[in-house]
Every structure is written in C-alpha cells, then in structure tokens.
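Appendix B, example 12.
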Amino acid sequence: MHDCSMRAYDPERDEMPLYHLWQRTLGELWPLTRAAFHAVTVGHPAYRAGDHLVAEAGEQVIGFVGTQTWRVPDEAAPRGELVAIVVDPAHRRRGVGRALLEHGLRILDGRGVGQVQVGGGGCCYFWPGVPANLPGAWAFFAACGWQEAERSYDLVADLAGYATPPYVYQRIRRPGVEIATASAEDIPAVLRFEAQHMAEWLHFYRHVAEGGGHADIVLARHPDLGVVGTSCVLDPRAPWSEGEFTWERLLGRDCGGVGPLGVMEAVREKGIGLALAARVTELLQQRGLGMSYVGWTWLVDWYGRLGYRVWREYVMSWK
C-alpha cells in the first residue's frame, strides 16, 4: 500500500493543484477550463463540504475522489455518485486509487444513499459513466468488483445546414400537439409536469425558471392534456447556465445542447419527443451556435434521425 494520507477537499487550498493534476493526468483526452472544474466539483447545487477527498504524499496532492448525493422526489434514499477518481500517474498501481474508491464509498454510505453510480451528477457532471477512451479506467473498476450494466453515449451534430426532416412535425399534427417555447405563464404547468412525470429533472427546470430562462424551455402542448413533454435549449450564454459547458475545450465555445427531454408516458411513441429535440436543435442553430450536444443518452439511432452521431461512449455501472 502506498504511504499516503487522506483528508477532506478544501476548495481554496486544493482547487488549483487538483486542476493542474487533472490537466496533467487527463488533459490530453479530457481538457477542462478551471471554471468547468469548479462548476462540477463545488459549484454544483448538491455540493456539501466533505463530499470530496484528496490523497497526499507528504505535501504533494497525488489523488482525488469526488462524491455527490442528491434526492429525487418520492425516492426514499438519496442517490450517490462517484463523480471522479484521479491519481497522479507517478503514484499509480500502489493502491492509491483503490483507497480513494473505498473512502469515497464510505462518504456515500454515511450520507445514507441507497445506490451508488460510477459517474453521473444530475444536471452538472464530468461523465455519465466510465469513459471508454480512458486506458485502464474500466479495468480498474472491474478489478474492484464493479460490473458493467450497459453503455451510454454523448452525441453531437454539426448545425451548419441543419434542417429538420419534414415528417418530424407532420407526425404530430394528427394529435394536434403544439411545440412552442415557454412563456413565464407556462412555468407552473411545466414544473407540475416535471414533478408528476420526470421528477429527477424537477430541480433542473426549477433552476432554469428561477434564472429567468423560461424562453429556453421548449414544451409540447396537447389540446386536451396540456403540457405533455419538455426539453431545454442549453445555450452557454444564457444567464442561468452560468456560461459553463464542461467540454468547451473539446467541442468549442459555439457548442450548445439539447437539455433533459421527457414525454408523458400516455402519449409516447407518437413523435412528440423527436419534435421537441428537433425544435431545440433549430433554436440552437438560429442563435448562431455551430454544434449541438446531447449528453448521457442511449437513443443513438433515435437522435440519428436528426443527424446526431456518437461522440463519446461510457461504461455504466451501479452498486
């Protein structure tokens, strides 16, 4: 076992050395701005002191584990996530990573979580799972007893020349569904929809609304059922977004995205979700953004109908 000590992460003391550790360790494949590192580690609304730990050898920070807990309405126990584990390459294969993992799990156990995910983090995260392009990353978790459950993907689409296929909107004309940007008066109905049908995204839409971003919310309105679906324009220039897109250094400053998208179960498989995604993509294009991003999805072929393609792949695992 490596001779190192663990202590709680202190943002003022540790952010700069850990940011440099990230760039030195992961920066070739996953470069970050310091602002994006801060946004995920301590700028997240779920952050609490004691969530993260650093490993030290003498006075040198050689590793980090980030954890997070957050509650979804109607779930008895909070969800737990291992946001990231980073170890200095010069100190690997000496038990530092395993020790960080064990300490991170103890933190989450102390928070009373019912399930732990590798990756994730609600509305602001590094990765949904373990990046498939990081050499040895999944092998480490597998050696520690984690099992692969499935794969998820990040997608991108070039907005130059984007045009929504005509059938996308034609399909929703029969049920009379309207796709529109939300007004301030629509917000109570949007939040009721999230609470009833997409509870894990209620905190996100509340954050957007409280930040004055109602015009960034795209909704599907049924003539009889009211709001039956929502998505959101992820514009890095929007005040509520605080201007941070985690992978700006990989995809560019002119990259926006399709926010959390959900449709009422009773009216799924009728083309409403694809129409929402198409309208968000159009709005990104109209705002002058050059690229659209969809994070943490399994719907590769579905988004592919609008021209999205796989950008990154992740191994998903829960305990």
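The chain has two domains: 5-146, 155-311. The chain has a mean pLDDT of 95.
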